[in-house]
Structure formats: C-alpha cells, structure tokens
Design brief:
CATH class of the largest domain in chain B: Alpha Beta
Largest sheet of chain A: 5 strands, antiparallel
Structural class of chain A: alpha+beta
Number of strands of chain B: 5
Radius of gyration of chain A: 19 Å
Oligomer: heterodimer
Strand order of the largest sheet of chain B: 2-1-5-3-4
CATH class of the largest domain in chain A: Alpha Beta
Structural class of chain B: alpha+beta
Number of domains of chain A: 3
Strand order of the largest sheet of chain A: 4-5-10-6-7
CATH superfamily of the largest domain in chain B: Beta-grasp domain
Strand content of chain B: 15-25%
CATH architecture of the largest domain in chain B: Roll
Number of helices of chain B: 5
Distance between the termini of chain A: 56 Å
Shape of chain B: elongated
Largest sheet of chain B: 5 strands, mixed
CATH topology of the largest domain in chain A: Uridine Diphospho-n-acetylenolpyruvylglucosamine Reductase, domain 3
Shape of chain A: globular
Distance between the termini of chain B: 53 Å
CATH topology of the largest domain in chain B: Ubiquitin-like (UB roll)
Bound molecules: flavin-adenine dinucleotide, FE2/S2 (inorganic) cluster
Strand content of chain A: 25-35%
Radius of gyration of chain B: 16 Å
Amino acid sequence: MTELERYVAPTTLAAAIDCLKDGEVTILAGGTDLTPQTRAGRMRIKRTLMNIRRIPELKGIALDGGAIRIGALTTITEIMDSALIAKHLPVLVETCRHFASDQIRNAGTLGGNLCNASPAGDTAIPLLVLGASVELASKPEDKIYRRSIPLSEFFVGPGQTRRSLCELLTAVTVPLPAPGHVARFHKFGTRVGLDISTVSIGIGGTLKDGALAAARVAFGAVAATPLRAAQTEAALEGQRLDAAAIARIAAVARDEVHPIDDVRATAWYRKELIHNMTKRMLENVAQA
Amino acid sequence: MSPKHDIEFALNGIRQRVTVPATMNTLEMLRDVLGLTGTKYGCGEGECGACTIQVDGVSMNSCLMFAVDCDGRELTTIEGLANDTRADALRASFVEHGAVQCGFCTPGMVMQADHLLHKHPEPDAETIKAGIEGNICRCTGYKKIVDAIACVGCTNK
Ligand SMILES: Cc1cc2nc3c(=O)[nH]c(=O)nc-3n(C[C@H](O)[C@H](O)[C@H](O)COP(=O)(O)OP(=O)(O)OC[C@H]3O[C@@H](n4cnc5c(N)ncnc54)[C@H](O)[C@@H]3O)c2cc1C
Ligand code: FES
Ligand code: FES
C-alpha cells in the first residue's frame, strides 16, 4: 500500500493532467466529500494529493454555441447565483437550493459532486433530465485530448465512473433546452439539505397540449448509480397528463425501481415514495 | 507520516506562514497549530457548523477544508470579527435577544450570520432560516437566533 508522499497545486490544466499520468493521484476540489471520507477511513489518499482549485480554466459558466458549459470547479453556490443558469436551466437552481448547507454549497463543486458518484448525488438528477455531458481531459502525449461522454453513461457504480485515472473532469455541458421545456426536481430527506437523499426525482420534457414530448425521468438513491428511467419515460412520452394517465405512469415508476433497504429507508418505502412523488410532480407539471 | 507543506495566507488581516501536514484540516490548524480556539469542533464532518469560518469572503466549514488549501487565501475567524462594526451589531443583538445559552454554537453561528448579512443585508425569516441550516444549536431552539439576526437586518434598512 502506497502512502501519501507529496502535495501539489498546479495552476494550469496541462500541468494537472501531466501529474495524473502517474496513476497514483487523489484529486482535491472543494474537499467536502474527500475530508469526511478519508477521516472515516472509507477512502485512502494516494501517493500524490493534487489540489485543482488553482486552475482558472476549470472555473466559470458560459453560453457556448447551443450549450451551457459549466466548469468543473464551479461551486454549488455559483450555480445557484448564476443569472445564465436561472434563465436557461432553472431546475438546476432549484436542485442547488436543496443541496447541503450554505457553507457546503460555498465549498463543494459540481465536478466533485459528479466524480464522487454517490447514488444519491443531487446534481446528477437534473443534469440527466437535461441531457448533459461531461468533458474529460487527458494528455496521452504532448497535446491535451478531450472527450465528451453523456452523463447517462458516466456512472458505473457507487463511487465509480468511466473517468480513467489519467483523466480530469473539466466541465459539464448542457444543451439549451427547447422552447416550452419544463423540468422539476424533488428530493426527499428528513433534514432538507443536509440529509442524504432518501430518494430524488427529476422529470423534464417539452410541454405541448398537456403532454410531455422528449420526456426524461431520472431517479437518485434507488440503485447503485443515479439513473434514467426508460420505462417511466416511455409511459410518459406524449401522454396527455390527466388523472388516469398520471396514476398509470406513477405505477410504472414504482415497478421500475429496485431500491435496497438501508439506514435511511426500506426498499418498500422508497418504492412508495417514488410512486407518490412522481404522481405529485406530474400533477404539478400538468398545471404548468 | 503525511508530508509537510509550507503555506502562507492572511488570517484576520495578518500574514501567516505555517508548516502543516498535507492531510491536516483547517480546523485543526487553527486550533492546534495557531492556538485560535474560538472556532469550535463539533462533529468534524460538516453537519453542525460550529467550525464555520470565512474564506475569501464566503463561509465554509473549516473541518471540511484541507489546511494546505488555505495557501494564498484570506481567512477570517471569529477572533477577526472583534474589530468589525457589522459584527459589533450582530454580537450586541445576540446578547440582547438571549441568542446565546451555552455558547458552543455561537462563534460558528455568528460567522455564518455575518456572511448571510453580507449577502442579504435585509433578510426575511425564511432567508435567515435557510442561511443557518448548516448550524446546529442544542440550546436556544433557534427562534432567538433568527430574531437576533433579523434585528440587525432591520437596522440595515
Ligand atoms: C454534511 C454534508 C452534506 C452534504 N449534502 C449533500 C447534498 O445535499 N447533496 C449532494 O449531492 N451532496 C451532498 N454532500 C456531498 C458533497 O458536498 C458534494 O458531493 C460536493 O459537491 C463534492 O464536491 P467537492 O468539490 O467538495 O469534492 P471533493 O471532496 O474535493 O471531491 C469529491 C471526489 O471527486 C473527485 N474529484 C473532484 N473534482 C474532480 C475533477 N474535476 N475531476 C476528477 N475527479 C474529481 C475527488 O478526487 C473525490 O474523489 C454533502 C456533504 C456533507 C459533508
Ligand atoms: S465541526 Fe465542522 S461542521 Fe461540525
Ligand atoms: S447556545 Fe448552546 S448550542 Fe447554541
């Protein structure tokens, strides 16, 4: 077992990715996941601890062609306070409001939230609904190489993603939603922000004549990763959202998830929550 | 043994140079290395807010922050609010409203309230409650704290 040997705080992306080649690097962003995880012994810091907070290229929110690009180091507070996000991606602001506490939102980053890959991670849910992609940068030779993968393919299991050890998550890109797009996020926990979600749900699509087109549904904390719910999406697609349809779709959602029993809730209770919350959210969308 | 690292930062307006182990958190550095014990250790995992400080003008849990990450930044702790007029009003209001009982949560609560008032000079009760969501108080039942912060907000009008 290797021990921590050095701490580095590179100031450019190129220097950071060079450092990753070693393979034995722990990346530090806001530290709000890393600190408690290493204290509790759930996570071991590798040979090099690399602080990426001094890299300006990883910061900022910008409209870039038909998409909004959010740098990996953007904090949850910065997302919440961004006029650009409020205008184009209001569901993300709504999500951030229910995220942890002010102190943690001021420190925690979007990149950290996604790379931590908790099944209950909050930002993944609206981002799945919005069809976001993550940008990963590496430097196999002397040039920076960037690849983009849909967030729906990014998560592999709890704490596991398709990011390779020599890649850094640099940004999240979200295509601008079509006119008439509506999206909702709901998180269930006992101490609103500070609780890890017992379940969370995101629903979105383009509302036309009381039905959602290009409907997307995502669930958190009901499986090993945050996930899109294909069956619920199919049941929702193009259906006029009257009481009978909503009841049918909520039942599909309940049957689609296979959560586990844990300290926060039983599997049965989670399925009931998914059913009742999906129903309530669709009623709300129908009135939009 | 974790490697040591030299860092330099402004602490309550005064330049500091310290050598810290790479895995030490900022709360340990403040209390154990620099001897500033106003910032409290409650839970060590981001749940209670007793360790709240301000870094580059925003509030953070010092227990969740690596000390090495303080390098080049500006830190304010409860000791640093001693000569600050906004904080004077806040302190007076906490006393007047009986918002301090055992006092253990108070430094963190005041640091967070100070940040809140900076961002929202006239917060309503909902904004205050949301703002101090990350600060636990076992004594007051929060109402007196919310009132104390709101009262400072009123005088900002
Ligand atoms: C009390 C408390 C409450 C919380 N509440 C919530 C909540 O309500 N909802 C929620 O979703 N989360 C919550 N969290 C978890 C945490 O705050 C978030 O996941 C946060 O966004 C993590 O970001 P960070 O910058 O602090 O990550 P860090 O701790 O710095 O990093 C997290 C992980 O991601 C890796 N990493 C970070 N950035 C990158 C990058 N750019 N490229 C590659 N790898 C990277 C790190 O190596 C590490 O493994 C809570 C945590 C605490 C302590
Ligand atoms: S000691 Fe830092 S939040 Fe409790
Ligand atoms: S006054 Fe005792 S914990 Fe708040």
